[in-house]
Amino acid sequence: MKEQNLKIRSNEFAHRCVKLALALPSTKLGSHIEGQLIRSSTSTAANYRAACLAQTKRGFISKLSIVIEEADESNFWIQFLLDEELLTFNRCEALLKESAELTSIFIASRKTAEKSKDRQ
Fold this sequence. Notes:
This protein has 4 helices and no strands. It is mostly helical and 120 residues long. The chain has a single domain, classed as Up-down Bundle (de novo design (two linked rop proteins)), CATH 1.20.1440.60. It holds the Pfam family 23S_rRNA_IVP. It comes from Marixanthomonas spongiae.
């Protein structure tokens, strides 16, 4: 059940990030961040789905490590566009929080998987 909830949550996160990215101004910097945020957020969702299909614990941990990197990178880009004042804090606050929460959840999941792998 938790796995399915995280699939849904990471998918919704990706969709919301795409919408946010498309709202960025059509400047060189805005276009760059648009592409980076779309790539990292959709990669978060896609790689989590792949992690759930991993055939081994090692494969799961490896894919989850990519998910963590991509979720954290999404957080970076959202914070960056705020730092550059491309969008308002009110517009980005929920996604900034969600990216941080997802990163923390995926880190905790990886730690749990690593502990159970070590017990085997």
